[in-house]
Every structure is written in structure tokens, then in C-alpha cells.
Amino acid sequence: MATKIRLQRFGKKGKPFYHVVVADARAPRDGKFIERLGSYNPNTNPATIEINFEKALDWVNKGAQPTDTCRAILSYKGILYKKHLEGGVKKGALTEEQAEAKFALWLEGKTVKIEGKKEILSKSKQEIKKATLLAEAKKKEEMAAAIIAKNTPSEEVEETEVEETSEVEVLAGVEETVAEEAPETEEEAPVAEVEETVVEEAPEAEVEVAEEAPADEPTEEAPSDETAE
Q1: 148-177 in b/e burial notation, b at 16+ Cβ within 10 A?
Q2: How far is the C-alpha of 228 from the C-alpha of 11, rounded, in Å?
Q3: Tens digits of per-residue pLDDT, 190-209?
Q4: Which of 37, 59, 145, 163 could bridge 64 with an S-S bond, Cβ 3.0-4.6 Å?
């Protein structure tokens, strides 16, 4: 019977969770399986992988074929490398002690890489958090500045309205003063008219005098009549 090492899907939509199982190659993906080897959670960073090393190595040695994703998981956990070293021991290229030493060295290097990746991710998270906090602080400052800018023009408008009101009151006071002085001007107007009338009538008097003057001339000729007598 051909067997495969593959993933069996669980979890909810958008957040899948997988079991690593050994199943018949002809069985459906989520159908019956022979043995469960571990689990794989891709929702974390780095992904969380829990697997039974000895069982997985035994099934690989028996000829179980892993899918592409399961092959990457087995390689990540060192199962395929362990199988490779055991093959070298069987061929006589390596001793068991040498194979164990190489695997321990590889495992140490792998652990350092994983820890380094976790540290980098942790720093990235802290930087992202700081950037987020700075962005929020900047946004709050911009909102405060916008509120101040929004309130400032209204105060200027109120001051302008007060100034305009005072100007209107001053103009109203001037108009009232002019209105109070207007009757005095009207009373003085007839005097000016009288003066103009007098000035206009004066020449007529002169004309009348000039016209009456020749009437007195015969009185001057009276002595000539007496002389004649």
C-alpha cells in the first residue's frame, strides 16, 4: 500500500490549522488516516511546527512519500537530513559517531538561525509599534492644530463684528447730531432770503429816483419867466 505524509486541514475560514498525518495515497485529503505525526500552524511568525521526530523518520525510511509542503516541514525539522546521514552510515561513508556529530552541529546552527529570526521579528514588531505610536501622536497633534485653527477665525470674526457694530453706533450718533442741528439751519434760511430780497429791491429805488429827477427841472426855469416879466 502506497502511503503519503500530508496535511489534514482544520481551523476556521481564513485561519487554517493542519495536522501532519500518514494516510493511504488513495484516501481523500480530509478522510481516514493511518497515524498522526504532528501539527502545523502557519498563522504564527515563524510558523509553529510540532512533530514526532522518531515516528516521522521511521515512516520516511519505510518509503512514505511526503507532499511538497510536508517535505519542507520535514526538512525544516531535520528529519530528511537525519535520513541522509543514516544512509551514509549504511553505505559505510560515515560512522554513527560522525553522523551524530554532524547532525548536532546542524541542529545547533538551525537553532541559532531560528532564534535570530525571532529576534529580528521581535525588533521589527517593536519598531512597528514605535512607528504606530509616533503616527498616532502626530495625528493627535494635527487634530489639535486643526481644532485651534478652526476656533481662531471665529474669534477674529467676533472681533470684526464688534468693531463693525461700534462703527455703526458712531455713524448713528453722527446722523442724530446732524438731525438735531438741521432745524436751526432751516430757521436761519429766511434771514438769508430777506437779505437777498433787499439787495434785489435796492436798484429799483435808485431807478425811481432817477426817473423823478427830470420832473424838478422846470422849477429851475421859473426864474427865467420872472425875468421875462
Answers
A1: eeeeeeeeeeeeeeeeeeeeeeeeeeeeee
A2: 168
A3: 444 444 444 444 444 444 44
A4: 59
Task: Say how far apart CA 136 and CA 10 lie, in whole Å.
Answer: 38
Determine the pLDDT at residue 50: 92
Q: What is the per-residue DSSP string for 110-131?
A: HHHHHHHHHHHHHHHHHHHHHH
Q: What residue ranges of the chain have pLDDT lower than 50? A: 157, 174, 178, 182-229
CATH class, range 3-93? alpha beta
Identify which of 100, 83, 79, 85 has the alpha carbon closest to the alpha carbon of residue 37: 79
Please give the pLDDT value at position 146. 85
How far is the C-alpha of 101 from the C-alpha of 128, rounded, in Å?
40
